[in-house]
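Open question from group meeting: does this chain pack into something compact, or does most of it stay loose? Before anyone orders reagents, we agreed to write out a predicted structure and look at it together. Recording both the input and the output here so the notebook holds the full record.
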Amino acid sequence: MSTLAHTMMTAARSADSGLAGPGELDRYPYAEAPAADRVGAPAWEGDPELGRVGRRAAGSRGRGLHGQLVQQLGQMIVSGDLGADRPLVPEEIGQRFEVSRTVVRESLRVLEAKGLVSARPNVGTRVRPVSDWNLLDPDIIEWRAFGPQRDDQRRELSELRWTIEPLAARLAAGHGREDVQQRLADMVEIMGHALGQGDAVTFSRADAEFHSLLIQVAGNRMLEHLSGIVSAALQVSGGPVTGCDRPNEASLALHSRIVEALPAGDGAGAEAAMRQLLTVHPEVERVVPAPREH
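C-alpha coordinates returned:
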Protein backbone atom coordinates (compact mmCIF):
# COMPACT_ATOMS: atom_id res chain seq x y z
CA MET A 1 0.00 0.00 0.00
CA SER A 2 1.30 3.47 -0.82
CA THR A 3 2.09 5.98 1.92
CA LEU A 4 -0.79 8.18 0.71
CA ALA A 5 -3.25 5.30 0.87
CA HIS A 6 -2.12 4.35 4.37
CA THR A 7 -2.33 7.96 5.57
CA MET A 8 -5.79 8.54 4.13
CA MET A 9 -7.20 5.29 5.48
CA THR A 10 -5.78 6.01 8.93
CA ALA A 11 -7.25 9.53 8.84
CA ALA A 12 -10.64 8.17 7.82
CA ARG A 13 -10.69 5.67 10.67
CA SER A 14 -9.55 8.35 13.12
CA ALA A 15 -12.24 10.76 11.95
CA ASP A 16 -14.86 8.02 12.09
CA SER A 17 -13.91 7.25 15.69
CA GLY A 18 -13.76 10.93 16.65
CA LEU A 19 -9.98 10.92 17.09
CA ALA A 20 -8.35 13.22 14.56
CA GLY A 21 -4.77 12.77 13.50
CA PRO A 22 -2.53 15.83 13.22
CA GLY A 23 -4.03 18.07 10.53
CA GLU A 24 -5.98 15.25 8.92
CA LEU A 25 -9.47 16.62 9.44
CA ASP A 26 -8.39 19.97 8.05
CA ARG A 27 -7.03 18.19 5.02
CA TYR A 28 -10.16 16.14 4.46
CA PRO A 29 -13.02 18.46 5.58
CA TYR A 30 -15.93 16.10 5.13
CA ALA A 31 -19.29 15.97 6.91
CA GLU A 32 -18.75 15.64 10.63
CA ALA A 33 -21.67 13.38 11.44
CA PRO A 34 -23.72 10.83 9.47
CA ALA A 35 -27.36 11.56 8.84
CA ALA A 36 -28.48 9.13 11.52
CA ASP A 37 -26.56 11.09 14.17
CA ARG A 38 -27.87 14.52 13.28
CA VAL A 39 -30.30 16.28 15.57
CA GLY A 40 -33.16 17.96 13.75
CA ALA A 41 -33.69 21.67 14.31
CA PRO A 42 -36.36 22.40 16.94
CA ALA A 43 -39.41 24.48 16.09
CA TRP A 44 -38.94 28.15 16.88
CA GLU A 45 -42.23 28.47 18.76
CA GLY A 46 -43.43 26.39 21.62
CA ASP A 47 -40.00 25.32 22.88
CA PRO A 48 -39.13 27.21 26.05
CA GLU A 49 -36.19 24.87 26.61
CA LEU A 50 -34.10 26.04 23.65
CA GLY A 51 -30.62 25.82 25.09
CA ARG A 52 -27.19 26.93 24.06
CA VAL A 53 -26.26 26.37 20.44
CA GLY A 54 -23.42 24.09 21.47
CA ARG A 55 -25.87 21.62 23.00
CA ARG A 56 -28.27 21.68 20.09
CA ALA A 57 -26.24 21.62 16.89
CA ALA A 58 -24.92 18.07 16.98
CA GLY A 59 -23.88 18.29 13.33
CA SER A 60 -21.69 21.34 14.02
CA ARG A 61 -19.08 19.98 16.42
CA GLY A 62 -15.88 21.99 16.31
CA ARG A 63 -17.39 24.96 14.48
CA GLY A 64 -17.55 27.39 17.40
CA LEU A 65 -20.63 29.32 18.48
CA HIS A 66 -20.75 31.37 15.28
CA GLY A 67 -20.63 28.32 13.00
CA GLN A 68 -23.07 26.41 15.16
CA LEU A 69 -25.61 29.23 15.08
CA VAL A 70 -25.29 29.48 11.29
CA GLN A 71 -25.87 25.73 11.09
CA GLN A 72 -28.84 25.80 13.45
CA LEU A 73 -30.62 28.75 11.84
CA GLY A 74 -29.81 27.49 8.35
CA GLN A 75 -31.33 24.10 9.10
CA MET A 76 -34.43 25.74 10.56
CA ILE A 77 -34.91 27.92 7.47
CA VAL A 78 -34.30 25.14 4.96
CA SER A 79 -36.54 22.69 6.85
CA GLY A 80 -39.38 25.22 6.85
CA ASP A 81 -39.43 25.73 10.62
CA LEU A 82 -38.78 29.39 9.81
CA GLY A 83 -40.93 30.11 6.78
CA ALA A 84 -40.51 32.71 4.06
CA ASP A 85 -40.88 36.35 5.12
CA ARG A 86 -40.54 35.34 8.77
CA PRO A 87 -38.91 38.17 10.77
CA LEU A 88 -35.73 37.30 12.64
CA VAL A 89 -35.14 39.55 15.63
CA PRO A 90 -31.46 39.52 16.62
CA GLU A 91 -32.21 40.20 20.29
CA GLU A 92 -34.63 37.27 20.42
CA ILE A 93 -32.16 34.96 18.71
CA GLY A 94 -29.43 35.97 21.14
CA GLN A 95 -31.67 35.27 24.13
CA ARG A 96 -32.98 31.94 22.88
CA PHE A 97 -29.58 30.58 21.91
CA GLU A 98 -27.64 32.34 24.66
CA VAL A 99 -25.09 33.92 22.35
CA SER A 100 -23.76 37.46 22.06
CA ARG A 101 -25.08 40.17 19.77
CA THR A 102 -21.85 39.93 17.75
CA VAL A 103 -22.33 36.19 17.15
CA VAL A 104 -25.91 36.76 16.02
CA ARG A 105 -24.96 39.64 13.72
CA GLU A 106 -22.14 37.72 12.03
CA SER A 107 -24.28 34.59 11.67
CA LEU A 108 -27.07 36.54 9.97
CA ARG A 109 -24.53 38.06 7.59
CA VAL A 110 -23.43 34.59 6.56
CA LEU A 111 -27.02 33.51 5.99
CA GLU A 112 -27.65 36.68 4.00
CA ALA A 113 -24.69 35.87 1.74
CA LYS A 114 -26.27 32.47 1.10
CA GLY A 115 -29.53 34.13 0.09
CA LEU A 116 -31.50 32.70 3.03
CA VAL A 117 -32.30 36.03 4.71
CA SER A 118 -32.38 39.69 3.79
CA ALA A 119 -31.76 42.71 6.00
CA ARG A 120 -33.26 46.09 5.12
CA PRO A 121 -33.56 49.36 7.02
CA ASN A 122 -36.89 49.86 8.77
CA VAL A 123 -37.88 46.30 7.83
CA GLY A 124 -35.36 44.20 9.70
CA THR A 125 -34.09 40.73 8.84
CA ARG A 126 -36.51 38.34 7.19
CA VAL A 127 -36.37 34.84 5.73
CA ARG A 128 -36.27 34.87 1.93
CA PRO A 129 -38.21 32.50 -0.37
CA VAL A 130 -36.54 29.40 -1.82
CA SER A 131 -36.22 31.11 -5.21
CA ASP A 132 -33.66 33.48 -3.67
CA TRP A 133 -31.48 30.82 -2.01
CA ASN A 134 -28.05 29.98 -3.38
CA LEU A 135 -28.90 26.34 -3.98
CA LEU A 136 -25.33 25.63 -5.12
CA ASP A 137 -23.91 26.58 -1.73
CA PRO A 138 -22.43 23.42 -0.10
CA ASP A 139 -24.03 24.23 3.27
CA ILE A 140 -27.49 24.60 1.72
CA ILE A 141 -26.94 21.36 -0.18
CA GLU A 142 -26.18 19.65 3.12
CA TRP A 143 -29.13 21.20 4.96
CA ARG A 144 -31.55 20.22 2.18
CA ALA A 145 -30.10 16.72 2.02
CA PHE A 146 -30.86 16.09 5.69
CA GLY A 147 -34.23 17.86 5.75
CA PRO A 148 -37.70 17.32 4.32
CA GLN A 149 -36.45 18.26 0.82
CA ARG A 150 -33.91 15.42 0.77
CA ASP A 151 -35.57 13.49 -2.09
CA ASP A 152 -35.68 16.56 -4.33
CA GLN A 153 -32.11 17.42 -3.37
CA ARG A 154 -30.91 13.92 -4.18
CA ARG A 155 -32.59 13.94 -7.59
CA GLU A 156 -31.36 17.43 -8.46
CA LEU A 157 -27.79 16.60 -7.49
CA SER A 158 -27.88 13.48 -9.65
CA GLU A 159 -29.13 15.51 -12.60
CA LEU A 160 -26.46 18.15 -12.05
CA ARG A 161 -23.69 15.57 -11.86
CA TRP A 162 -24.94 13.94 -15.05
CA THR A 163 -24.61 17.30 -16.78
CA ILE A 164 -21.20 18.28 -15.38
CA GLU A 165 -19.03 15.23 -14.92
CA PRO A 166 -19.09 13.48 -18.31
CA LEU A 167 -18.10 16.77 -19.93
CA ALA A 168 -15.34 17.29 -17.35
CA ALA A 169 -13.99 13.80 -18.05
CA ARG A 170 -13.87 14.51 -21.79
CA LEU A 171 -12.12 17.85 -21.30
CA ALA A 172 -9.61 16.41 -18.83
CA ALA A 173 -8.28 13.89 -21.36
CA GLY A 174 -4.97 14.85 -22.89
CA HIS A 175 -4.35 17.92 -20.75
CA GLY A 176 -0.96 16.58 -19.71
CA ARG A 177 -1.28 17.40 -15.99
CA GLU A 178 0.81 14.46 -14.85
CA ASP A 179 0.70 15.48 -11.19
CA VAL A 180 -3.10 15.52 -11.13
CA GLN A 181 -3.33 12.33 -13.16
CA GLN A 182 -1.06 10.65 -10.63
CA ARG A 183 -3.24 11.94 -7.81
CA LEU A 184 -6.31 10.50 -9.55
CA ALA A 185 -4.50 7.16 -9.85
CA ASP A 186 -3.65 7.37 -6.14
CA MET A 187 -7.34 7.86 -5.32
CA VAL A 188 -8.21 4.74 -7.31
CA GLU A 189 -5.52 2.82 -5.40
CA ILE A 190 -6.94 4.02 -2.09
CA MET A 191 -10.45 3.03 -3.19
CA GLY A 192 -9.16 -0.43 -4.11
CA HIS A 193 -7.52 -0.97 -0.72
CA ALA A 194 -10.59 0.37 1.07
CA LEU A 195 -12.87 -1.94 -0.91
CA GLY A 196 -10.73 -4.92 0.03
CA GLN A 197 -10.96 -4.01 3.72
CA GLY A 198 -14.65 -3.13 3.66
CA ASP A 199 -13.83 0.47 4.60
CA ALA A 200 -16.71 2.44 3.09
CA VAL A 201 -15.67 5.69 4.80
CA THR A 202 -12.25 5.79 3.15
CA PHE A 203 -13.73 4.65 -0.17
CA SER A 204 -16.23 7.51 -0.21
CA ARG A 205 -13.63 10.11 0.74
CA ALA A 206 -11.22 9.01 -1.96
CA ASP A 207 -14.13 8.93 -4.40
CA ALA A 208 -15.10 12.51 -3.52
CA GLU A 209 -11.55 13.72 -4.06
CA PHE A 210 -11.33 11.82 -7.36
CA HIS A 211 -14.39 13.56 -8.80
CA SER A 212 -13.37 16.97 -7.50
CA LEU A 213 -9.88 16.64 -9.01
CA LEU A 214 -11.27 15.50 -12.34
CA ILE A 215 -13.36 18.65 -12.65
CA GLN A 216 -10.41 20.82 -11.64
CA VAL A 217 -8.17 19.34 -14.34
CA ALA A 218 -10.77 19.83 -17.07
CA GLY A 219 -9.26 23.23 -17.89
CA ASN A 220 -12.55 25.11 -17.60
CA ARG A 221 -12.59 27.64 -14.77
CA MET A 222 -16.36 27.83 -14.64
CA LEU A 223 -16.58 24.06 -14.28
CA GLU A 224 -13.84 24.20 -11.66
CA HIS A 225 -16.05 26.34 -9.46
CA LEU A 226 -18.53 23.46 -9.39
CA SER A 227 -16.06 20.94 -7.95
CA GLY A 228 -17.15 21.73 -4.40
CA ILE A 229 -20.76 21.04 -5.36
CA VAL A 230 -19.87 17.59 -6.64
CA SER A 231 -17.96 16.86 -3.44
CA ALA A 232 -20.95 17.96 -1.40
CA ALA A 233 -23.22 15.81 -3.54
CA LEU A 234 -21.09 12.74 -2.90
CA GLN A 235 -21.03 13.37 0.84
CA VAL A 236 -24.75 13.98 1.37
CA SER A 237 -26.41 11.82 -1.28
CA GLY A 238 -28.32 10.01 1.46
CA GLY A 239 -28.00 6.55 -0.07
CA PRO A 240 -26.90 4.72 -3.22
CA VAL A 241 -27.87 6.75 -6.27
CA THR A 242 -24.97 6.25 -8.65
CA GLY A 243 -22.12 3.80 -9.02
CA CYS A 244 -20.03 6.14 -6.87
CA ASP A 245 -22.26 5.67 -3.87
CA ARG A 246 -21.87 1.92 -3.53
CA PRO A 247 -18.31 0.56 -3.21
CA ASN A 248 -17.90 -2.43 -5.53
CA GLU A 249 -15.58 -3.81 -8.19
CA ALA A 250 -17.65 -2.41 -11.06
CA SER A 251 -17.38 1.14 -9.71
CA LEU A 252 -13.66 0.73 -9.11
CA ALA A 253 -13.11 -0.57 -12.66
CA LEU A 254 -14.91 2.43 -14.17
CA HIS A 255 -12.80 4.86 -12.14
CA SER A 256 -9.69 3.04 -13.38
CA ARG A 257 -10.93 3.25 -16.96
CA ILE A 258 -11.26 7.02 -16.65
CA VAL A 259 -7.71 7.32 -15.27
CA GLU A 260 -6.33 5.22 -18.13
CA ALA A 261 -8.15 7.33 -20.74
CA LEU A 262 -6.71 10.66 -19.58
CA PRO A 263 -3.01 10.34 -20.57
CA ALA A 264 -4.05 8.65 -23.80
CA GLY A 265 -6.13 11.68 -24.76
CA ASP A 266 -9.19 9.45 -25.10
CA GLY A 267 -11.88 12.01 -24.30
CA ALA A 268 -14.69 9.87 -25.68
CA GLY A 269 -13.59 6.90 -23.58
CA ALA A 270 -13.35 8.97 -20.40
CA GLU A 271 -16.77 10.48 -21.02
CA ALA A 272 -18.36 7.11 -21.74
CA ALA A 273 -16.90 5.59 -18.56
CA MET A 274 -18.19 8.50 -16.50
CA ARG A 275 -21.67 8.21 -17.97
CA GLN A 276 -21.68 4.52 -17.17
CA LEU A 277 -20.47 5.24 -13.65
CA LEU A 278 -23.32 7.71 -13.10
CA THR A 279 -26.02 5.37 -14.43
CA VAL A 280 -25.23 2.11 -12.67
CA HIS A 281 -28.53 2.08 -10.82
CA PRO A 282 -31.91 1.98 -12.62
CA GLU A 283 -33.19 4.77 -10.36
CA VAL A 284 -30.74 7.21 -11.88
CA GLU A 285 -31.51 6.07 -15.40
CA ARG A 286 -35.15 7.01 -14.77
CA VAL A 287 -34.25 10.36 -13.27
CA VAL A 288 -31.52 11.27 -15.76
CA PRO A 289 -32.05 9.49 -19.10
CA ALA A 290 -29.24 9.19 -21.58
CA PRO A 291 -29.14 11.83 -24.30
CA ARG A 292 -31.26 11.05 -27.34
CA GLU A 293 -29.52 10.26 -30.60
CA HIS A 294 -29.91 12.91 -33.30
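Observations to bring back to the group:
Confidence is low (pLDDT under 50) at residues 13-62, 281-294.
Residues 24 and 90 are 36 Å apart (CA to CA).
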